[in-house]
Amino acid sequence: MSHVSGLFTRRGYNIDSIAVGVTENPETSIITIVLKGDDKALVQFQGQLLKLPDVVEVKNLPYHESLIRELVLLRVKSDPGKRNEIFGIVEVFGGKVAEVTDDSVLIELHGSGRQITAVIKLLATFGILEIARTGQIALAYHTDTAAQS
Q: How high is the pLDDT of residue 27?
């Protein structure tokens, strides 16, 4: 992770999102990095990553060819008169109410970055007390239709 983040720093790349986790092999981690740039910058960055000694593979996962998810935990101000409205928003976005107190609701949601941004915007009208948002994780959709059967 330190090698990868150092590469970003040295090259002046801006990271929009980064998430790290273990894989099916406990000796290997996967780093999902989201950055903006043109095809030339992407190819250049992939080449730079492959030069790092710990990097095994680099994949480009286009948005429309991948399942991309992010998790957000939100604590929202809530008095009893507003709870049904908050619960309705959470339900529409497929979230879960994890805790209800006298003056707040703790919410767990996952979805695409766009969905997470949309629900945060809606819940901000109630007053967000705390927020923790992960980076995006992704896997490519299977392109071999025979393997999907």
A: 86
Q: Please give the C-alpha separations between residue 23 and each of 4, 29, 84, 116, in angstroms, as whole numbers.
A: 17, 6, 39, 24
- Of 98, 12, 2, give the one whose Cα is nearest residue 86: 98
- What per-residue confidence (pLDDT) applies to 12? 75
Residues 131, 95, 139, 56, CA torsion sign: positive
Q: 90: closest CA among 68, 118, 132?
A: 118
Q: Is 95 exposed, middle or buried (0-12, 13-18, 19+ CB in 10 A)?
A: buried
Question: What structural domains does the chain harbor?
Answer: 2-60 (3.30.70.260), 66-138 (3.30.70.1150)
Please give the single-letter amino acid code of residue 31.
Answer: I
Per-residue pLDDT tens digits for 35-82: 777 888 788 888 888 888 888 889 888 888 999 999 999 999 998 999
